[in-house]
Design a protein that fits this description.
By secondary structure, the chain is mainly β. The protein contains no helices and five strands. Bound molecules: zinc ion (ZN).
Amino acid sequence: MRKRSILIPMPRSRFYRVICKNCGAENIVFSHASYPARCKVCGSQIVKPSGGRAKIVDAEIVAELG
Ligand SMILES: [Zn+2]
């Protein structure tokens, strides 16, 4: 058995579980999204791309995944 040395190739990118502030729906967004992600329920923009790390807008991060 070999040791697994690299589990996550891109350690700074991850997924967030966020709650939309408009409607309270839960959404999964990518931390480095290069596109404006919208809430799947009410359609308001919750992620704003900003070159590298995306900004979470109008949503609250409740958990980090991966
Ligand atoms: Zn919403």
